[in-house]
């Protein structure tokens, strides 16, 4: 491949060879969305060939990886070949999609730290402003609180504390300060660059924190190195000023990547609906509805029903957040019920509306009508600008504390959960009642538990506390825990059972599958429409209420 003289467009080795040993390297990436995979792999190839740069510390706004992609490929090679010279440590909000990064952390082979996604996104912006870090109430009373674990994931992290969380008192109130050294290298990604280095992101699924990562690297007296991966280069003037995400003077080098190392998301090469190049009509979005009636859809419907009630209560449309897992499926129920005029879903990575994707593609949305930069999206959540959020859960204790994803002897990270759950005025934790091998059907308006899951999710002791119910009650948050067979409400005295599914025996199917007994007074049957084929009829219900 040839490169034009007098431009910033260079081959990867020319750019990456400027990275010094011991650098802190900031990498954009929400799973594979905005991940500069080509730069990452070329950087590791350079180390394997020359031994430099070595002793690198990587930080990211989320995780620049998916299984067998991006950083996970590097971690796998490091782990299998036992050559630990390249990598000193990581600060990633989520490592669930990188099995080998988890292994390196768990076996204490590298320093391991984790902060919430929103905190990391803001941290890059705060560092760019020359401030000491992020001051927030997010994380109080959880494993992020330094009185507990402080986001330190292993002994090396506890010993070195390269990145740390400090308890601060301000006007008699407790806050957490997330702080650490600024990056001196930034590896970012866009779609098109001009020869001045201006970067446009027209084919990317999100905008992420790309601009702020570049700014953080350039902040202060030590001006860091910024390298951008793109798919193509256009002559200067080929990008309109308002289309520029990162101005060229902030970027030192541009590297053109092959399409196979610049996928839009983990499993999608390019979809114009995800990029926002095409905005589908409401009739076109009907393809996103899920026709299979199962326990997951029952839970998603129950969440959508609660959100519809908010619309009717307030007499206006509402803004919501949907987390990973079953909550993401609420968007499909909203589409299927044709209530997109009343419920506006957002995904933490930046999209508004559309059909939120699942698994390693989470973060992308097909057919969004707006995509914000990630720090601005998270302002919606901590600031309580949204009306409600639905988030997943793995464990819940009798106080109502929640662990969304942390399994014993495994490292995942909190993702966006702590910020969203801290700020949303209403939270609907959504998940199936048990886990493991099970056979549960939704048939003829009934919930049939042929074989229940052996893994209990309502437990006495959490693996980690990631949302603290006491802090939520102090803020006046309204909280419900929604499953396919029972619905609970948070009270100052713990969980209260308020609804039970049709055909369910409370003792056999609920209490015997909990390690604690909830408050049981009066309760109702869950809405029978949730367990029947066809639409629930939420649109008609909302429109009738709003006409009154």
From TrEMBL:
User: What keywords sit in the KW lines?
Assistant: Transferase
Q: Name one GO biological process term.
A: ketone body catabolic process
Return one GO MF term: CoA-transferase activity
Cite a single Pfam family from the UniProt record. Answer: CoA_trans
Q: Which PANTHER family match?
A: ACETATE COA-TRANSFERASE YDIF
Q: Which family does it belong to?
A: Belongs to the 3-oxoacid CoA-transferase family.
Protein name (Swiss-Prot/TrEMBL)? Acyl CoA:acetate/3-ketoacid CoA transferase
Query: What species is this protein from?
Result: Zestosphaera tikiterensis
Source lineage? Archaea, Thermoproteota, Thermoprotei, Desulfurococcales, Desulfurococcaceae
